[in-house]
Design brief:
704 residues; mainly beta; Immunoglobulin-like; eight-stranded antiparallel sheet; 11 helices; lipid transport; calcium ion binding; Extended synaptotagmin-3
């Protein structure tokens, strides 16, 4: 019923306005059959996604027995008696909220163009119609792509606080620069003497990301071609969006496929830079050499570096919302400019005639057009566009509102990109007065500039082997195994640690003393809590707002395992990276690795890292890594993200503890191997810091 209403009330009027030949177009029968849409596979993302969103990829198949008939113009009729649509639909539920309906909005789109097959009826008559002569599956796919293939999205806000423009056109994730360098060992497709003699190929490459498509030059008669060409793509979803590369042999009749290669940009984002040979698929042999670079989008103007080789240095994102009070045609503009009385013809048509308008954006040779909105002086486009910028100081965005059929101007606007450098967050979001337009003609749009910057690749952790003289294997009555710790450790609130090594004299002068980067000393003192308080590690025993057991403070004399209490060496170190992602408004903490941890047995130690973002210390805020078994030098490479403003982050602390992962419940000893408290007010979060931190235990002396 919904789709029938949509076809008759929305699509039918749009078809009638699109061409004079279709002004009598009418749907006479609408039936969507009995076969439902099927979801043949589903994937939920748990990494590289915001904690406040759910991201699902659905493989859908709609093999429908639809029955739709339409009168084009008497006696010409057309119909569809079945269609098949297949593709991968991404569904994003965000933001997650603490009350019904639990989700603030739903966004869905195809990451890549789906495949469409249509069983037409009445095609003999249909092709005779001037309005339908160009109609095909490809044309309909273009319509679908304009609605819901990236970067276009279908959005349904469920609460008032969600901004539709941010849902429909969020800022891209980043930019990937693809260097198409060369290929080797390609298949020889050209043959001579009736196929008896194999020759060479004339290879070229096509590269597609979403609706962006490029073709390389053709290298004549070469199975090892060299291109050395560079292409740049805006990436809206990573992981998800792919580089689709195809190699062809150019021929006079039909080009032969030499192989394909697809690469998810999530891999490029993770590695920052990739430079390697990739095997071609679908052919016996052949490889292509690509270099790929991931560029993050920054708001710091000091990072602006113009490229001498013609590559982009920035990206401009434009969200076109609407316009108001557009003139109906160029004659109305002329009349307004001359301040003359309108002609008799203009006065007669003024009440009924409204323009069919679209917007044309241009930065130098890059021209992009919006969809056409018919018969209104107040059109709503609600579309997004992206442009690569090579010189922020000299380039400008030229905007022209045009009439659809005559292509005449209804208004213009020039926006120098240098103006965005001076605005807050490099963004302009406002109504602009159109020049060479009506008396009160305006256009509403949002322009956002972002600087392209290469972040440093993830650090490769090289762990030093533990010195033998500092590794003491505790011997007990149980055959060399240390006493097992309880599942719930008791850690304390602790002061800020400097990245520098803590002097022994300071470490031994109080239960737990640490240097801050400002040089002041802070002493940990246990609060007056019950020393024998019962502690549980089972989250099901506590409400989400209860203080987690691992945050209970230890009073003096609290029970550590005997091997820990007798240990006279270092408890180990932890390698952390802390930085603030201004584009995403997130604090990012990377738990990279530990080294020289206290050894609980001859086989090493089972360990994991627990983290709280103070003052949040309830179960729901508890973060932890996986357990790394039988090693005193575990590598975690685990990322935690916190939704917080930069100003708020600077006023908070990170409570990090390394814990014994052995899960035995018959002992009440602490599980802690060591801990560290990081005062974020002492760090340059926007620049970030990567350091080794010495692990401490409150109430115990730490003697290296």
């Amino acid at each position: 019923m919904y789709m029938e209403k949509l076809l008759k009330e929305n699509i039918q009027p749009a078809i009638r306005l699109s061409s004079a030949a279709l002004k009598m177009f009418t749907f006479t029968k609408v039936h969507f059959g009995h076969t439902p849409l099927r979801i043949t596979g589903m994937k939920a993302y748990t990494h590289e996604v915001d904690r406040r969103e759910v991201v699902l990829d659905l493989n859908i198949c709609y093999d429908s027995d639809v029955d739709i008939d339409a009168d084009v113009q008497s006696p010409i009729t057309a119909g569809v008696k079945g269609l098949k649509l297949q593709g991968m639909l991404r569904v994003i539920l965000e933001p997650l909220i603490g009350q019904a309906p639990l989700v603030g909005g739903v966004t869905f789109f195809f990451i890549r163009r789906p495949t469409l097959e249509i069983n037409w009826t009445g095609m003999t008559n249909l092709l005779d119609s001037p309005g339908f002569s160009s109609l095909s599956e490809g044309t309909i796919m273009d319509i679908i792509a304009s609605l819901m293939v990236l970067p276009n999205r279908m959005c349904v806000p469920l609460i008032d606080q969600v901004k539709v423009d941010q849902m429909r056109f969020p800022l891209p994730r980043g930019v990937v620069r693809v260097h198409l360098l060369e290929a080797r060992d390609l298949v020889a497709k050209d043959t001579y003497m009736m196929g008896l003699v194999k020759g060479k190929s004339d290879p070229y490459a096509t590269l597609r990301v979403g609706n962006r498509h490029y073709k390389s030059k053709t290298v004549k008669e070469n199975l090892h071609p060299t291109w050395k060409e560079v292409y740049e793509f805006v990436v809206h979803e990573a992981p998800g969006q792919e580089l689709e590369l195809e190699l062809y042999d150019e021929d006079t009749d039909k080009d032969d496929l030499l192989g394909t290669f697809n690469l998810d940009f999530g891999e490029v984002k993770k590695n920052i830079e990739m430079d390697q040979w990739f095997p071609l698929e679908g052919v016996p042999n052949g490889e292509v050499h690509l270099k790929l670079q991931w560029f993050s989008l920054k708001t710091d103007p000091s990072l602006l570096r113009e490229s001498a080789d013609g590559h982009a240095c920035a990206m401009l994102a434009v969200y076109l919302d609407n316009a108001s009070n557009l003139p109906k045609d160029h004659s109305e503009i002329t009349t307004h400019q001359k301040h003359k009385k309108a002609t008799k013809e203009a006065r007669l048509t003024k009440r009924t005639a409204c323009p069919n308008s679209f917007v044309e954006f241009c930065i130098d040779k890059d021209v992009q057009k919006s969809k056409v909105v018919y018969a209104t002086k107040d059109p709503k486009w609600e579309e997004g566009f992206t442009f690569f910028v090579h010189n922020v100081k000299t380039q400008q965005l030229m905007i022209q509102v045009k009439e659809h059929e005559k292509k005449t101007q209804l208004g213009v606007l020039n926006l120098p990109l240098s103006r965005l450098l001076e605005t807050s967050n490099m963004t302009l979001d406002q109504r602009f007065v159109l020049e060479r337009s009506g008396a009160n003609s305006q256009i509403q749009l949002k322009a956002t500039l972002r600087i392209l910057a290469v972040e440093k690749p993830p650090p490769k952790i090289i762990l030093n082997p533990p010195p033998k003289d500092t590794q003491q294997i505790p011997q007990t009555n149980q055959g060399g195994n240390a006493p097992d710790s309880i599942p719930s450790g008791a850690t304390s609130s602790s002061p800020a640690l400097s990245p520098n090594t803590i002097p022994i004299s300071q470490a031994s002068s109080a239960p737990w003393v640490a240097n801050t980067q400002k040089g002041s000393d802070e002493t940990w003192r246990p609060p007056s809590t019950t020393s024998n308080m019962r502690r549980y590690d089972s989250q099901s025993l506590l409400s989400e707002n209860s203080i987690a057991s691992s945050r209970y403070d230890l009073s003096e004399g609290a029970s550590y395992p005997e091997a820990i209490r007798k240990h006279q060496g270092s408890f180990g170190e932890i390698h952390l990276t802390v930085r603030y992602a201004t584009l995403r408004n997130k604090l990012i903490v990377l738990v990279n690795a530990c080294r020289n941890l206290f050894r609980f047995s001859e086989n090493g130690t089972d360990s994991y890292v627990r983290m709280y973002f103070l003052p949040d210390q309830s179960w729901i805020h508890r973060k932890r890594t996986q357990v790394k078994k039988r090693t005193v030098n575990p590598v975690f490479n685990h990322k935690f993200e916190f939704d917080v403003t930069l100003e708020e982050a600077k006023n908070r602390k990170l409570d990090v503890a390394v814990k014994n992962g052995k899960m035995f419940y018959h002992t009440r000893d602490s599980k802690d191997i060591g801990m560290v408290m990081i005062d974020l007010s002492q760090l340059d979060l926007t620049k970030g810091i990567t350091e080794w931190y010495e692990l401490m235990l409150p109430g115990l002396k730490n003697i290296s």
